[in-house]
Design a protein that fits this description.
The protein is of the alpha/beta class and 324 residues long. The chain has helices at residues 18-30, 44-47, 52-56, 85-94, 107-124, 161-171, 191-194, 197-201, 210-219, 290-296, and strands at 75-79, 99-104, 129-133, 146-152, 172-185, 208-209, 222-236, 239-250, 262-266, 272-275, 278-281, 285-288, 305-309, 314-315. The protein folds into 2 domains: 18-250, 3-Layer(aba) Sandwich (Rossmann fold); 256-315, Ribosomal Protein L9, domain 1 (3-Layer(aba) Sandwich), CATH 3.40.5. It contains 10 helices and 14 strands. Strands 1, 2, 3, 4, 5, 6, 7 and 8 form an 8-stranded mixed β-sheet that branches. Helix 1 (18-30) packs across helix 5 and helix 4 runs parallel beside helix 5 (107-124). The termini are far apart. The structure holds S-adenosylmethionine (SAM). S-adenosylmethionine (SAM) binds at residues 18, 21, 25, 58-60, 80-83, 85-86, 104-106, 109, 135-137, 152-154, 157-158, 203.
Length: 324
């Protein structure tokens, strides 16, 4: 895969290319790169079916799969899957009826992942795993086919991050979600640092600020964000780089039976919350349109609101109405 000419930088003024990143990770697939190792605490039980070789080249900065509330039978895609650690953890959780695909551009990483997938499948007693070569910016999967996208310390490495968010949105089913562990900087990374290939490869100088990350996600039409600041990883030239877990949702399909006005009652615990331009005070009915009713009836909001049809004053959430 040669993409030197396809890689037109957008938001990034960096001189670093995807080929630089691929060279970096080709080496990291062969021998453990200590400078890349963030302290990630995986649960022992989650790793019991995974060969040691995979753990040696694990370069994540969090455990997105363990925080994605994955259900049995779901279809999960891990972007920048590397040696496959998060795919292998997910393969156990989604079970035999689920499916896991890892996407990575680096052949040497894919080779390690594929080789160890056989042992993992044997240990699990079923095979629901696949590793595909591809780019985060142009994911080789169909539109609206995936339940959950995870990624572990990879978005920061992309030189075209806006394209990554757009493509994650494209492949997710309506109502689907992303759960991403990544490095976030406390201030925008200056240009001379962004041009440093070594620092970029080490997941430092390609980092976004939290505002940038959420801005790109909103631009790609995601909503319902939750953010967990995990730990301070590094301080470089006065900038602080933290490990975060970030989650967001793709809108569900518009609810055809809910086109009319609805009432939403916020259940608490805060006195007031705001969603877009609409404020909700705890316990006070607010008239909203069908689209917002549909959004507040789905994750991650559904536990926070009662949605009421004013025509018959019945609580829709939990009954058989299509808004439930
Ligand atoms: C820091 S490693 C993380 C690997 C894995 N997620 C883990 O936790 O061990 C980054 C991985 O992302 C891949 N990668 C980086 N940029 C990519 C891109 N634009 N498209 C596809 N893969 C990419 C690299 O090849 C490498 O395997």
């Amino acid at each position: 895969m040669n993409d030197r000419h396809a890689s037109t930088e957008d938001e990034s003024s960096s001189e670093v290319s995807r080929e630089d990143v691929r060279d970096f990770y080709s080496k990291a697939a062969i021998a453990t790169q200590e400078s890349l190792c963030c302290p990630v605490k995986y649960e022992r039980v989650d790793l019991s079916h995974i060969p040691e070789r995979v753990l040696e080249i694990s370069y994540g900065c969090g455990s997105p799969v363990s925080q994605a509330n994955i259900r049995s039978g779901e279809f999960l895609v891990d972007l920048g899957s590397g040696g496959g650690i998060d795919c292998f953890i997910a393969a156990k959780i989604v079970g035999a009826s689920g499916r896991v695909i890892g996407i990575d551009m680096t052949e040497k990483m894919l080779a390690v992942a594929r080789e160890n997938a056989q042992a993992v499948s044997q240990n699990l007693g079923y095979n629901n795993l696949e590793f595909k070569q591809g780019f985060l910016e142009n994911i080789p999967l169909e539109d609206e086919s995936v339940d959950v996208v995870t990624s572990n310390c990879v978005i920061n490495l992309s030189t075209r991050k806006k394209d990554v968010f757009k493509d994650i949105h494209r492949i997710l089913k309506p109502g689907g979600r992303f759960v991403i562990a990544d490095i976030i900087s406390d201030q925008p990374v200056p240009d001379e640092m962004r041009n440093n290939r070594e620092l970029w490869g080490e997941c430092v100088s390609g980092a976004l600020t939290l505002d940038e990350f959420l801005g790109y996600s909103r631009e790609a039409q995601f909503h319902g964000f939750t953010v967990t600041k995990d730990y301070l990883w590094k301080e470089v030239e006065g900038l602080k780089f933290y490990s975060y877990i970030l989650r967001g949702y793709k809108h569900s399909l518009p609810a055809s039976c809910c086109a009319g006005a609805q009432l939403a009652i916020y259940k608490g615990p805060f006195a007031t919350v705001t969603c877009g331009n609409t404020s909700f005070s705890v316990g006070v009915p607010v008239e909203i349109d069908g689209d917002l009713a549909e959004m507040l009836s789905a994750p991650p909001f559904e536990a926070m609101f009662n949605i009421i049809d004013p025509e018959n004053e019945e609580i829709a959430a939990g009954d058989d109405s299509c808004c439930a």
